[in-house]
Amino acid sequence: MILDNNWQEGHKLPPQRALAETLGVSRPTVREALVILETMGKVNIQPGKGVFLVTRAQEGLPAAPVTRFDRSFIAGKETQIFQFRHAIEPAIAALVALNATQAQIDDMAAMLDDMKQASVRGDVQHFAQLDFAFHTQMIEAANNPFFIEAMRPFFDLFSESQRLPFSNQEGLVDTMREHAALLEHLRSRNSHGARLAMEEHVVATAARAGVRISSW
User: Which residues pair with 12 in a beta bridge?
Assistant: First the structure.
């Protein structure tokens, strides 16, 4: 679509709902594609403003390493990245419960449905991609631009840490259950419950990846 319309640098893409309708796909699929394009350095997602094609000046930023889907990319850093996530993500979840729009919560619910379908198909890779998209949507749904800017340098490490527990199909059911519990707290706008649910999820995700961290 970008090429066919000859959209130039800095162009603001249509809203995700409009893209989904035009392309005939679900909004979680659009969201996943935008996340991938952002990690490739092709678009810039600005919470509350939209998605923009990167400018030439922005293209000078380092691109995502081609090895980012290789476990060796974070070898030796597993404990640190999960400790980082354990410190940051529960706070984000609490803010999402307070600040997210209903449309953003609906998007996460739809993404969770797509994850269920990927689990049924046994498509572990797609499941992991949707899981990463779910968590990045959480960051955006906090509707605080400082979190996006703070997390952006760590997106590659963050993405790879999402894949560690999914080297096989074990853990998919537990991941779905934990996400569903988190989503219920978000729907009820229970900030404290969302914080605790995310904390439990990060600890459990780390355990499935062979990393032990303790709740604080």
Answer: 52
- DSSP 8-state class, residue 52: E
What is the pTM assigned to this prediction? 0.70
Decide: helix, strand or coil at residue 128: helix
Dihedrals phi, psi of 73, to nearest 5 degrees: -60, -30
Taking each helix axis from N to C terminus, what angle separates 172-187 and 124-141, rounded to the nearest 10 degrees? 20
Do 16 and 34 form a contact (C-beta atoms < 8 A)?
yes
Per-residue pLDDT of the chain (216 residues; tens, 9 = 90+): 888 888 888 999 998 889 989 998 888 788 878 877 876 778 888 766 889 998 765 554 444 333 333 445 555 678 888 898 899 999 999 999 999 989 889 888 988 988 888 888 888 878 888 888 888 888 888 988 888 777 777 766 676 676 666 555 667 889 999 999 999 999 999 999 999 999 999 999 888 888 888 766
Calpha distance 177→172 (Å, rounded): 9
Residue corresponding to tokens 């968590």: 135
Write out the DSSP string of 163-207.
Answer: HGGGSSSTTHHHHHHHHHHHHHHHHTT-HHHHHHHHHHHHHHHHH
Strands (E), the chain: 43-46, 50-53
Q: Which residues does residue 43 pair with via DSSP β-bridges, in sequence order? A: 53
Report how far apart, in Å, the C-alpha atoms of 133 and of each of 5, 11, 62, 95 are. 26, 23, 21, 18
Backbone angles phi, psi at 111, to 5 degrees: -65, -35
DSSP 213: -
